[in-house]
Design brief:
This protein has 738 residues and is an alpha+beta fold. Among the domains are: 336-479, Reverse transcriptase/Diguanylate cyclase domain (Alpha-Beta Plaits); 489-734, EAL domain (TIM Barrel, Alpha-Beta Barrel), CATH 3.20.20. Helices cover 45% and strands 22% of the residues. The protein has 23 helices and 29 strands. An 8-stranded mixed beta barrel has the order 20-21-23-24-25-26-27-28, surrounded by 4 helices. Strands 1, 2, 3, 4, 5, 6 and 7 form a 7-stranded antiparallel beta sheet that branches. Strands 9-8-12-11-10 form a 5-stranded antiparallel beta sheet, with helices on both faces. It is rod-shaped. The chain starts with 18 loop residues before the first helix and ends with a helix. The structure holds ligand C2E and calcium ion (CA) (2 copies). Ligand C2E binds at residues 511, 527-528, 538-540, 543, 552, 556, 559, 583, 585, 615, 645-646, 669, 701-704, 721-723, 728.
């Protein structure tokens, strides 16, 4: 899972899966072509070998027929009595015998005794009966020559000469057949055997067999060390030859294929066996395949390169589209779409405590107005980095829109301290040597096991954020079950508030203030109440919301006007009006001219500004976004009294207090509640001391008991407000004090 750089994660360039099928296809195609080519070449070989065999057979048949004819002629002429003596026969035929490739002629009697035309005497020639058993011209198998070392074959026919039956023989050296057979096939890689019907080799064009009476079938079996299935093919050839059938076949061993053709000749059932190995062809084939494979590899590579090129450009286009659709160009973070698309992925991969936090920069619009667009883009970038840096890992940070970020992350430690760290870093950033203090509001949601819908999650996060938006006291809100009801209530209030104002549902209660010494009326604080049907809604139920949605501006003005109206009526009724303090929310101060509206009302009812005390909370004085001095001075110049409300809760500094045109410090109720009556080390003592130092008046709020009253009175406070004297009461009730 990605960490720091989180999920921005453009898709990597991928070599697409289709490269594989193309490769496989091209290999399959090559194999197909290879096999096809091989088949064609094999068929070609068969055709060739058959043709060459046939040629050999034809030549052999022709030659032998002529030779037989020659011997026939000799025997005929002898039998017809044209020649009386051996000498006259030799004399007549020896001349022509060379035309028929015969080396010599001989005439032999039944005892094997005879003579050759070149004067060799033959005695007791072996197996002479073989010749006398034949009536037609007989062609013998190989026999050793009596005269030379050569093998010879003898053509013979019986005839009557010298008054007895003899045979006339024409002798041919066996080797002579070789020149008749097409012995050298395929550049000498092939060759021919002439065998008899039993497989005995008569001629071997390979010149490997030197002995007599060698059986070709056994010889091949032995020479090539054939296995059973291979030798079965040889046996079949032997059977075919026995049955006078022709045929072809091939045997493969030792990575070579041998092609055989066997064809019968017309004489003695002898066979011409032609044999060739694929050596030559193999070369042809490899040459072809080399060219073919190189071409096909180059072609495939070209296609793949082209496709990858197209693919990359496609992916680049997708990346660009992806960037514009999912990436925020300002911060380089994902946008809302990205967040929605990838958070599920995150949830799937990250288990444990997972949170979604939405972060909003308060008053970012104001920054934009002050510093300009470009500068504020740097602020956004910097906020993104802060979030990433603080969470550090297992997080996905996105900028959803304008100044709103969201981060989904896994975190097993204290979430509060993490959020505070983010807020703290944001409260002090440096951009182009300018110090910027950002206020963040953060909505937090801890993801539950059954949470899968990111939109639901986001809406809960937004809800939580809306709870703290615009507040400086609370920076984040962690979603809880009550939030939804609260928000519903708020929504209900918001949708009714305008109408309520119009219908005069907001009423003023006055809480009287007294001088402690004589318990005489010192004035009153105007506090708003909302009359909704039968119930009176207290301000803490709606004021914070109105501050958030700024409706408080309208309400405060309304209250101010009602108070002025009351004061005018009191002046008329009682001849005077008591001093009244009116709460002014700090929301007004965003607009420094807010006071003009107040002045308009003052004039309308002819009220003396020195009779009105404007209560400003201490927290407003420490808000960096407000130029409080300018505002206070304006108010002061108009003659209003200024009190600092809820003093002691807002961390204002002494120097600030000193520089502000304040009249009264209003000590918050909490300090009264905390008083330990047996000690003089209470905070309220210090506050009183400070205000005396600054020559300010003090009023203590929330005094409820006699004891408290006595205590704060003795501290020398100027005024007291609290249930000890009176709760806030209606105008009519208050008038009793006048
Ligand atoms: P605050 O300005 O501090 O007002 C004093 C609050 O303390 C009042 O609450 C008052 O009823 C309460 N209080 C006074 N004496 C005692 C006491 O002895 N015991 C107790 N328990 N409470 C005491 P309230 O009226 O509920 O108002 C609450 C807050 O709402 C005010 O606090 C003020 O901040 C705000 N608020 C009320 N009216 C207005 C208004 O017209 N405009 C603005 N901006 N804020 C208002
Ligand atoms: Ca007040
Ligand atoms: Ca107060």
């Amino acid at each position: 899972m990605e960490t720091k750089d989180n999920y921005i994660p453009l898709k990597r360039y991928t070599i697409r899966i289709w490269v594989l099928p193309i490769f496989i296809l091209s290999i399959l195609f090559s194999i197909f072509i290879y096999n096809n080519t091989k088949n064609i070449i094999y068929q070609n070989i068969y055709a060739n070998i058959t043709e060459l065999s046939e040629q050999s057979v034809t030549n052999l048949n022709q030659t032998i027929t002529n030779q037989i004819q020659f011997v026939e002629t000799m025997a005929d002429s002898i039998n017809k009595g044209y020649f009386k003596t051996t000498e006259s026969v030799f004399h007549n035929f020896a001349e022509n015998m060379e035309d028929y490739k015969f080396t010599r002629l001989a005439i032999i009697d039944k005892n094997g005794n005879g003579i050759t035309n070149d004067g060799h005497i033959i005695t007791n020639y072996a197996n002479i009966e073989e010749f006398f058993e034949q009536d037609e011209v007989y062609l013998s198998e190989n026999r050793p020559s009596l005269i030379s070392d050569e093998q010879v074959n003898i053509y013979s026919k019986k005839c009557y000469i010298d008054n007895q039956e003899k045979i006339i023989c024409a002798i041919i050296e066996t080797n002579n057949y070789k020149s008749i057979l097409t012995t050298k096939l395929f550049d000498g890689k092939g060759g021919t055997y002439l065998i008899n019907n039993n497989g005995v080799v008569l001629i071997d064009s390979f010149d490997e067999i030197n002995e007599n009476n060698i059986n070709l079938f056994n010889y091949i079996n032995k020479k090539y060390n054939l296995n059973l299935s291979q030798s079965t093919k040889i046996s079949k050839m032997a059977r075919d030859i026995k049955n006078k059938r022709n045929g072809t076949f091939d045997i493969t061993f030792n990575h070579h294929t041998y092609f055989f053709n066997y064809e019968k000749i017309d004489v003695n059932d002898w066979y011409v066996i032609s044999l060739v190995s694929d050596d030559t062809i193999a070369k042809e084939l490899t040459d072809f395949l080399f060219v073919f494979l190189t071409a096909s590899i180059l072609l495939t590579a070209a296609i793949i390169t082209a496709c990858i090129g197209i693919d990359i450009s496609h992916q680049n286009k997708n990346r660009k589209l992806f960037r514009t659709a999912f990436i925020d160009p300002v911060t380089n973070l994902g946008n809302l779409q990205y967040f929605r698309a990838n958070s599920n992925l995150f949830l799937e991969h990250q288990k444990g405590n997972r949170y979604v936090v939405s972060i909003d920069i308060s008053k970012f619009k104001a920054f934009n107005n002050i510093y300009g667009y470009e500068f504020c883009n740097k602020i956004l970038k910097s906020v993104g980095n802060i979030i990433k840096d603080v969470i550090n890992k297992d997080c996905m940070v996105c900028r959803l829109y304008s100044d709103v970020f969201a981060v989904i992350f896994k975190y097993n430690k204290d979430i509060d301290s993490l959020l505070n760290r983010i807020a703290e870093k944001a409260s002090n950033i440096n951009i182009d040597d300018t110090n910027i203090k950002l206020n963040l509001s953060m909505g937090v949601y801890k993801i539950q096991k059954n949470d899968t819908n990111i939109d639901n999650i986001l809406s809960k996060v937004y809800m939580s954020r809306s709870k703290v938006k615009g507040q400086y006291e609370q920076l984040y809100y962690i979603y809880d079950e009550n939030l939804e009801n609260q928000l519903l209530e708020e929504q209900e209030i918001e949708s009714n508030m305008k109408l309520a104002l119009k219908n005069k549902e907001f009423k003023i209660y006055y809480q009287p203030k007294f001088y402690p010494e004589d318990k005489k009326l010192a004035g009153a604080e105007a506090l708003v109440r909302w009359y909704r049907g039968d119930t009176i809604v207290p301000p803490n139920k709606f004021i914070p919301l109105f501050e958030k949605n700024r409706f408080i501006i309208k309400l405060d003005l309304y209250i101010f006007e009602q108070v002025c109206k009351d004061m005018a009526s009191w002046k008329e009724k009682y001849g005077y009006a008591p001093k009244v303090s009116i709460n002014v929310s700090k929301e007004h101060f965003v607009n420094p001219n807010f006071i003009d509206e107040y002045v308009k009302i003052i004039k309308k009812y002819n009220i003396d500004t020195s009779n009105i005390d404007l209560e400003i909370t201490e927290s407003a004085t420490v808000d960096k976004q407000i130029n409080i001095l300018e505002i206070m001075n304006k108010i002061k110049d108009l003659g209003f009294i200024i009190s600092i409300d809820d003093f002691g809760t807002g961390y204002s500094s002494l120097s600030m207090l000193e520089s502000m045109p304040i009249d009264i410090i209003k000590v918050d109720k909490v300090f009264v509640d905390k008083v330990d009556f047996n000690s003089n080390k209470n905070i309220i003592n210090h506050i009183m001391f400070i205000s005396k130092q600054l020559e300010l008046e003090t009023i203590v709020e929330g005094v409820e008991t006699e004891e408290q009253f006595e205590y704060v009175k003795n501290l020398g406070c100027n005024m007291i407000q609290g249930y000890y004297f009176s709760k806030p009461i209606t105008k009519e009730e208050f008038e009793k004090y006048l």
